[in-house]
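Write out structure tokens for GIY-YIG domain-containing protein.
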Amino acid sequence: MKGTYCLLINLKKDSRIKIGNKLSFINFKSGYYIYVGSAMNSLEARLNRHLSDDKKKHWHIDYLLLNKNSQITDIYYTVSTKKVECEIARNISPNSSEIDNFGSSDCDCNSHLFYFENIEDAITNIKDTFKKLGLKIEIY
């Protein structure tokens, strides 16, 4: 199964987290983050990897997810052979605060991680974006 997904992440308290070698340390505010990604080989395996604490730090998101203050609260996804993560990111971006250069080293987007103070705004943005793009939304 191939597709694109949004991780809804709760960061319980302000945290300073080292994100790889290039980004170094980033100060994250407590609140909710949407991370947009895709899996063009095995969507289910990718989502399970994100949910696991037993992984090597490979992608930017791994550093955030392995922080003791972060937790995935929901995963929204769409099954598709077309990679639409950048379209989703571009639609969520105007309604949020971006974390510059996060998760977007292989595209021309400014970011694939977006901050929201509250969960309601984050969920609304995900649902509205999927609807606007005509994507069937599913919850993992």
